[in-house]
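Pasting two entries for a bug report.
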Amino acid sequence: MEYDIVVIGGGVVGMATALRLIEQRPNLKICVLEKEVKLAQHQTGNNSGVIHSGLYYKPNSLKALNCVRGYNMLLDFAQKENIPYELCGKVVIATRPDELPTLETIYERGLANGLTKIKKIKAEEIKQYEPHATGIAGLFVPYTGIIDYEVVTNKYAEKFMQQGGLVFIGEKVIDIKLYNNNAEVITASQKSFQTKLIINCAGLFSDKIAALNKDNLHYKIIPFRGEYYKLRADKTYLVKTLIYPVPDPNFPFLGVHFTKMIGGGVEAGPNAVLAFRREGYKKTDFSLQDTLETLSWAGFRKVAFKYWKTGMGEFYRSFSKAAFTKALQRLLPEIQEDDLVDGGAGIRAQACDKTGGLIDDFLIVEDRFIINVGNAPSPAATSSLSIGQTLSEMALKRFE
């Protein structure tokens, strides 16, 4: 089978990219390969469904630029396609004096990223937004919202296929062969896809796909599991919007928080623990190969040495509901262990470079026949149409 472009990965970024491509060049033959039997089954389908505003990200970074642009694209798409969403807003709360400088930095970044309606709030004002929350200072961010990204992804796919694109599910890519004028993508079912260009949006396996045609890759995907609880139905009144802590500026995770869900209910979490399997959604999930790959990566060992105290705290909260509850009580003192019921879990594909850096920004690496999305964690879902636009522009230059 011959195609102009093959997109690997049927998550929100892969499908957004395919849609943007076919919208701009409907004459091109484009397909998406997804290894699962349904789209959006991993990072896309297991996140908390937050529409991020661009508050946290360094101005002019890929995250900032794509989140702000993607935010508006996503809302426009949801309105046109009648996808339910809610701009409920969120509060970011400092509970200790040492968090105040970071809170100020976040505020300044938000303004620099065009979020002119964010508002500083004092301790006594927090309860105007969240009556049961407490802290010493905070920010109110009216832009933040909630949506179901699995619904969004399937709508991207529907629009893509309506315009002539093809989606192949159950097709796990196992090899890529390069020739003089094209490339060949081979799947586990022994199907062959000849193509002029590959766009790798494989998420948790994006580094493995990249390694099929690139030696000495400078990054590796390290899987981190985020575990959630849900508030009991009779306790959801405790949360009106979304309640976030001030994040650790040295660690690319936002800390445990409270999130209203578009389908109802409130999630509490996630923590961030090393997963011993790339798709290890349960604490007991283990892959010897995945674990050895992680532990043998020099960059991860440097990360582990640098953040071992933080990592041990995350593991402790993973196995101790009391400790998890205590972390939540910093924001919402009324919460008790009995108020929490088991929720789900997601896996974050976090790229780590050889020097021990947890890559914070989006990472896109181009080669002759492939464009690799090497790092696309949160806010990639919010940014999906913007990332897709960026990737499609990079790709279509090759067809001019």
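Entry 2 (this is the one that rendered wrong in the viewer):
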Amino acid sequence: MNVLTLKPFQSLSQWIVGNRTGTEADCDVMYDRTLLWLSLGLALVGFIMVTSASMPVAQRYTSDPFFFAKRDAIYMALAFGASLVTLRFSMEMWQRYSPVILIAAIIMLLVVLVPGLGSSVNGASRWISLGPINIQPAEASKLALFLYLASYLVRKVDEVRHNFWGFCKPMGVMVILAVLLLAQPDLGSVVVLFVTTLGVLFLAGAKLWQFLAIIGSGIVAVVLLILTEEYRLRRVVSFLDPWADPFGAGYQLTQSLMAFGRGEFFGQGLGNSVQKLEYLPEAHTDFIFAIIGEELGYLGVVLVLLMVFFVAFRAMQVGRRALEAGQRFSGFLACEIGIWFSFQTLVNVGAAAGILPTKGLTLPLISYGGSSLLIMSTAIVLLLRIDYETRLANCQAHGRGTR
């Protein structure tokens, strides 16, 4: 296992847990080096690519080509500061206040729908404006639901395994969030919540027939949601054959595919994208992966996907170790984060490559967006905290066993 006792970060260790005595003081603080550096690497790649992809649109709207790069740097600094604070809180605290966090997320989802309080962009009311800062409650609602779901499984895991209503209760909470998200509208976040919830319930040991019933119901619901909204139907039709209307409904996807085509194996070089010159809309947000493909080529695409994959893989490993150590809340939460990261990446990359319909989801730790970066970095920090507490518990148990 690739871990490292980070002696240069002993001051950070003291910041996390404060002054320790007894057995804790005898244990070195250990971190998952792979998870830490992969996460930092993805954030750095994201900053570089956001800077490159956003320069033309920033120059046009603000006369400052580094406008979005500066804002992204501010978001990264805020995320780092928030991470230092988050590291101080134990997982027991997150478990205890998970219902409060969920209620706060629901309130924010309601506020964003109130005229005058919610900010609308491209016909979607997804942001709360606080001066120069825009908060996207949908991002916070994902983490809030996963915290609550992990807490629920600690209390009711046997009921989930043996009782259909125990299985349906967390799905009911997810449906409440889904209704509020669809009112914005934001179908992409609903799909992420649905898949992640099903995934962790499967890991918790729920019966297979329950999954088949819920998955069938979910597919029917998604089809109905697509058929009842004209813009969603256009997205599906254009996704199936974008070249049928390359200057209309299929415009964004055809431009994205051309970006991948220009990238070939080694790419056009950093900063040399043509599609970012306002041919490809949302080049620095939802479709940043297409710019990565154009500038860094197939090699860059594979490296970025491998980095995201290993972050998700390490998250699942952290969850497995926590469950083996008897820390069920931490274990379930880590698994949820792993599923969340991998599935959201799948949807974002699939939409950019024309494999899936466009859903408006960010690429974790890479796409431009303050709310997404803050929530994703918080999730990574929670993984580091879970890993720390698991290793500390194992160290203490080993210390007791040798006495």
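Dev reply: Rendering is fixed now. As a check, the viewer should reflect this: The chain is about 70% helix and 5% strand.
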